[in-house]
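debug: dumping io for the single-chain case to check the tokenizer round-trip. Nothing else runs in this session.
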Amino acid sequence: MAQLTASVYTSHVPAIGAAIDHGKTTEPYWQPVFKGYDFSKQWMKDNTPDVIFLVYNDHATAFSLEMIPTFAIGCAAEFQPADEGYGARPVPTVIGHPELASHIAHSVIQDDFDLTIVNKMDVDHGLTVPLSLMCGQPQAWPCPVIPFAVNVVQYPVPSGQRCYNLGKAIGRAIASFDAPLKVQIWGTGGMSHQLQGPRAGLINKEFDNNFLDRLIADPEGLAKVPHIDYVREAGSEGIELVMWLIARGAMSAKPPKVVHRFYHVPASNTAVGHLILENQA
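debug: decoded output
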């Protein structure tokens, strides 16, 4: 059967992608950010999965205000990098895994979670920046990726509890897939940031690090945090952190092994957070 080996959590700041694409990673401003992922790149080479299930949010690229799915799973054979207004990022095409994606969709829907099945869509920086941070600039991504888009842009957005419970359902679905695949689940977005209004540029280090502590040791309690707390403490875009709860919910009930933890301020006008957790046998 398939095995969920680890979960990865990272911010997906678009300016990070631009810094990579334009060769700015060694500049004084950006160097501390990318240094925090040196370990992660080597870990990824040493622990390359057969499939990545990547939880992210679309930024009005594949979906617009005309159609806003709360949860959408990509079941296509491939996904092209999106043009977000300044040309597509110079990154490889994302190869999907239709068999596992379809199995997860079937299992999760039968588990009473409604998903939108997407058989064609482009993927934006929310998905490609995490891949670049973990894998560098390869000619091809090291394994297939299943995109899983969550609406955290237009209210109403799913609660942390809903996301955590969905993660548990996804974990069960992966474990029931009849093939010896090693699967990682990634939760992306965040951390604290606000892009507009009087609090533009807001960063809350205390909230962010408390969130990382609880994600590791108290995910059940963290799942109960209401939306208003994210918005008040982490800014309007801090709500993206509920996507990390999907990845955490999919993990084993046993305490995970903390392989790597990194936090840095600032990258563009946001805080960057990163965790790698391995499932204990």
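debug: round-trip ok. The two ends are 15 Å apart (CA to CA).
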